[in-house]
Every structure is written in structure tokens, then in C-alpha cells.
Amino acid sequence: MAFNFYFTILLLSVSIAQAFGNDYTSINAEEARHRAKRAPGDLLETVVLTEAEKIEIVRLHNQYRSRANASDMLAMSWDNTIAQFASNYISNCDFAHSTNAQRSSISGFSIIGENLGTQITSSNIRSRDYILSVTQAWHNEINDYFYDTFSCIANKACGHYTQVVWAKTYKIGCGAAFCRRATSTVGYRLLVSCNYGPAGNFLNNTAQPSRVGRPFERKGAPCSQCAQQDTCVD
Ligand SMILES: *[C@@H]1O[C@H](CO)[C@@H](O)[C@H](O)[C@H]1NC(C)=O
Ligand SMILES: *[C@@H]1O[C@H](CO)[C@@H](O)[C@H](O)[C@H]1NC(C)=O
């Protein structure tokens, strides 16, 4: 082939609380569109994350969480059960979110959140860098987010960012897979999925129109609003 290509895509983050199921019709419709269009590829390799990669993913999340200047931000740590879910799911090579039912009752959480990202390349290079850089890409949505009105710039997505810095989320597990794209397309893709316990991005039904609530509070000193038994990050 005469050209090489390389691009990345993030898929709108979802974490849907069953209690708020009906309020999430717009996101469910979005998911339904993704599912209708999806064309799962063929698995080349389920990536076994190294200990160093796991540590770096957790470190990056906690670094971004610290920078939020929140008063109720919990420290995040790795969860092997959640990571196993992410790895199994992403090995389907399908760039579409898992269903609420699939994400329910995992590692003691009634539902876990999910951020997805993919890097598409023309050749089968199997570079792993994106496994780490996708966290920054998710967090970069901070530039489109207004804390005061807890909303995004019109037509922008901020759901990956709000999940990364969702104060009450304290467990993370990620998986990745190298896949050949579906036959209708050319090239290869690295898919990365991180799941979060408990899920973030809960709706605030007091707000009009109803929308995702504030990911964290800024009322007082760092950790001042954390419960005694929590591990808070400054
Ligand atoms: C947190 O506080 C520091 C120091 O006041 C400030 O520079 C930074 O922009 C704040 N971060 C956010 C996300 O508001
Ligand atoms: C929910 O929305 C109300 C009304 O806009 C706002 O005052 C409140 O801070 C919001 N709470 C959260 C957790 O987002």
C-alpha cells in the first residue's frame, strides 16, 4: 500500500446506573447506533498488561485526580477482577460498549463504568504506547468541561474525563487487544478498555435539564469530605 495511516478514536464513556436507566435514553440510543454499525474484527492477540503498565495506568489516574483540587477524591487502585472483565470483553475486538447487564455485579460493584479507546494503524506494528497514552487522551477532555455548570462545550464529549476524576470511583482494571479490522475495512487496531468501580457519571436529576452530576466536590481542603475509612488523595 502506498500510504500509512494512524489515528485514534475515543468512544463516549458510559456507566449507566440501573436506577437511572430510563434517564439515559440518549446514551442508550448512541450505544444502539454503535452496535448497529459495529463490525467486530479478528483477535490477533489479547495483551497481557505488564506490572509496570498497570502501575503507570493507576499512577496517571491518581495524578489527574490529585490535580482536580477536590475535597472528596478517593485514591484509585488496581482490581484484578475488573481487569479480567476488561480483558475478556475487549478481546471480542468490538469497539462498542459492553451492556449494563455485562457490567453488573463485578468485583462487588453493582455496576462498573467503562472508558474505551482505539488506535488504528495501516500496518501490524503492535505498538503498546497507546495503552498508556489513552489515559491522557481521556483526561484531555477537561479542556471542554466547565466545572461550575458541570457541563461540556456543545457537541463535545467529556464523559471519559468525568469518569477518570469521578471522586467515588476507587478501583480500576484495564485490558487491551490487538485486532485485525473487520473485512469491510483495512488495517489493524489496538483496543483499550478501562472499567471503573463503582461506576461514575451518575445523573444529577435535580439539574434541568438532567445531566451527569459533578464528578467531585470542591468544598474545603483536600480530603476533608472523605469518610474516615477512605483513602483520599490530595
Ligand atoms: C488546582 O489548584 C492549583 C493551584 O491553585 C491551580 O493551579 C490549578 O489550576 C487547579 N486545578 C484545577 C483543575 O482547577
Ligand atoms: C445537581 O444539580 C443542582 C442544580 O443545578 C446543583 O446545585 C448541584 O450542585 C448538583 N449536584 C451534583 C452532585 O452535581
UniProtKB/TrEMBL annotation:
Superkingdom field: Eukaryota
SCP domain residues: 52-204
Record-linked PROSITE patterns: CRISP_1, CRISP_2
Signal peptide segment: 1-19
A GO CC annotation given for this chain: extracellular region
Entry keywords, A to Z: Signal
Family: Belongs to the CRISP family.
Protein name: SCP domain-containing protein
Record lineage: Eukaryota, Metazoa, Chordata, Tunicata, Ascidiacea
